[in-house]
Amino acid sequence: MSGESSFMHLVRPNVAAPASSTSTGASNIKIHAPALFQILEIVSKQVLSAEKRIIGTLVGLRSEDGLELEIRDAYVVPCNETGDSITIEDSVHKTLFQLHKKAHPKEAVLGWFGSSNQIDSTTSLIHDFYSKGAYPFPAIYLNVEYLTADNQITVPKLSTYVGATVGKPGSTQQIGWKTTTTNNSYIFTPIPNQVINGSITEKIAFKQLREKSVNTTSTALTSDLSYLSNQLEAVTTNIDNLLRFIESKGVEANSDKDLDLLRLLSNTLLNKPQLLSNTEELKNLFSAHNQDVIMIEYLTKAVKDQIELSARLTASAEADKKF
Amino acid sequence: MASVIVVDNELKDSVKEYAQIIDGLNQNQEFSESLTPLLGDDEQIKDGKLLIEKIYEVSSNSTLSKLSDREFEPTFYLLIHILSELSGESISVLDDENSPIIKLLLELNPQRQPLLRDRKSVKSTTILSVLTNIFNLIPETSTRRIFIINQILSIVKNANLEFNLIEENIGNNLINWLTKAQASESDIKSIFWNFISLDSEYSLKSLQFIKSFTLQFPLSIQELHNLIKFALSSPIVDVSFLITNNVAQALHANAQDSLALIFNKFVQGELVKLSESIEDLSIELINEKSRILALAKFFSEKSQLPDHDSIVFKYDEIPSELISNVEDFELLLVNSIKANVIEGKLNQLESTFYLTRVNRFVIAGNEQTNTSNWNEVRQVLYEWKNSLTNINEIVKSTRENIVNNGSA
Q1: Same structural domain for residues A58 and A144?
Q2: CATH number of the domain to which A106 belongs
Q3: Residue-range definition of the domain harbouring residue A309
Q4: Stretch 268-307 of chain A: residues touching chain B, C-beta under 8 Å
Q5: Residue of B nearest to A267 (CA)
Q6: In this structure, are A300 and A186 located in the same domain?
Q7: How many domains does chain A have?
Q8: By CB neighbour count within 10 A (0-12 exposed, 13-18 middle, 19+ buried), where does A228 fall?
Q9: What pTM was estimated for this model as a whole?
Q10: Whole-angstrom distance between the N-terminal and C-terminal Cα of chain B?
């Protein structure tokens, strides 16, 4: 949500967590795409009606000052809501987190996600539960709006909140002999979030998947072309599209957007290396390069064969000795 | 998405809690005791109005300022919660022209840098945080949002807070918020320029905010001056992207204005000399930047001449008004490359410069040059396309060659 938003977020509010420093800047949440898919899958499979509440734990990384958060993974935690009260299966949450911790020792509980459409007193109860899990850092709350009030599925809307305490910090209310230090009063402040797609390997895998599943016919046709030719053709198509767009505008395009395009194009394209129009020279260079590659391949193969041969000779010499 | 306050207690308990906090600050029991008759034993609160008055009475500047920075926010949210619950409608306390609670908050903002001794006292950022939450509690269409934004800007200004604290969020949304809050056009403009004037770094981001602003609104002479002064003081050299159609119109309408004249010269790559004077702006900085732009203009014009090589330049071709000696020229080149206006390679042995990229100044309003620019771009795109086809053919034929040789 780096673009436009309806809320203001300048400074993260004071939260009742010992490790949060007071003088802070804005905080920001990054949601990794796999974690987002995980959350959406859980929500879409589990949520059957708007009344049923589905919650789960968010795990990931946190920067040193606690302002930058990265959600890496999520898992569901069963809960049972009856009227005003709610029970969370604490043991499941703990077991799953221990399991996650084995594979990702650096990650920690960041907060929780839920599918409820409104923030109510139960929300703050759960938030309090997770504030202890994320202790000594403040917990975050990610809301996924999946169903509308009349149980219609909508495009999932994500909003993230941080809960700032209301009232006396760690207010102790004396109920009989037991002093409770729970704080169930929060003001939920929206904070910006953005979905990021992680590593290059993820991108390559995604591209492969798309090519294999979406346009199976065209890959079969072009499969005998080299990767380089493929890329060249892709660029040529792009240039064709661009040219078609420019032709359709005519040379009198003077709106602000057109000028931006013109500025970009003329700043980057106008100085073209001379070499590109010199076909002969290019051909020479390219074949020289290819010769080099073939030469290296040949040499590696020769060396490899030599090594294998010597290994076999030694082996057979050893075998001869035995007899 | 807005802020939501969730309090698990009964309202009465919240009032009691607040009374405890106040009494803790005053180190007596007065307030709690004075509330006992009002709260009574049953569930209902008897006299809401009287209670509100009482609460306002004790929540004075001097009392609340005793709170530490950490305690301040939760207490203030509790106060907001109590008052809005007591007055019935949840946001009417905040959404009011003379809301005493916002006045109180603004009075609590520290007026000067805190001493080391009172490092625990309330900080300006805390006040900002509360204000943003109030902003989020008020509905989008309320005109009170305009007031809050103004207050936030003035706090940032008075407390000398870092501009980048508010740059991203406010800059991206300011106009949107103001339009939704039904601010008049003149209000939007003045708030926007107020916001921009807070940026003492003259950053690229602010320039882009100005640009998107000028895409929406025409400029008056005063605003044009603001824009020019900001752009000329900025470390960003090539500001030609600022000249949108609206700016071009304003420049055209005020063609006789001295500032507009110099700016026009500057963005078109003509040299602004040291002898020229511009009110309260550093002429050295402008001259420095102007030399870079003039060099870029020289390169782009020369490289298009048919009798000149398009990428190789000799040192002695450069006009003498730009440079005094070779070292000076090399320094200028390095500066231009650093400013991202030119890209290329220096060959000091042969005293030549190989140009790979240079910025062209595309400016709205120059229809003739823009038309020829479009034509050039089209031409070059065709050339690129042909070259690519050539390369592709080379790749294919080489590939076939290799395959054939291998099988033979």
Answers
A1: yes
A2: 3.40.140.10
A3: 272-318
A4: 268-274, 276-277, 279, 282-283, 286-287, 290, 294
A5: B359
A6: no
A7: 2
A8: middle
A9: 0.78
A10: 71
Residues of A whose CB is below 8 A from B371: 251-252
Can you read off the two tokens belonging to residue B57? 């009475």
Query: Domain boundary residue among A170, A200, A230?
Result: A200
A165 touches chain B (CB under 8 A): yes
Question: In this structure, are A168 and A313 located in the same domain?
Answer: no
- Predicted complex ipTM: 0.76
Q: Of A171, A200, A229, which marks where a domain is finished?
A: A200
Q: Do A23 and B73 touch (CB under 8 A)?
A: no
Q: What gap in Å lies between CA A235 and CA A170, rounded to an integer?
A: 62
* CA B40 and chain centroid, separation: 53
Do residues A178 and B91 lie in contact, with contact meaning Cβ atoms separated by under 8 Å?
no
Tokens representing B43 are 């569930």
Domain-embedded: residue A184: yes
Backbone dihedral angles phi then psi of residue A80, each to the nearest 5 degrees: -130, 120
Residue B233: exposure state from Cβ atoms within 10 A (0-12, 13-18, ≥19): middle
Q: Does any domain span residue A250?
A: no
Residue range B78-126, pLDDT digits in tens: 888 888 888 766 556 666 666 778 888 888 887 777 677 767 778 888 8
Residue A322: what are its φ and ψ, rounded to 5°? -65, -35
**What is the C-alpha radius of gyration for chain B, rounded to an integer number of angstroms?**
32
Q: Domain check: are A279 and A192 in the same one?
A: no
In single-letter form, the type of residue at position A298 comes to: Y
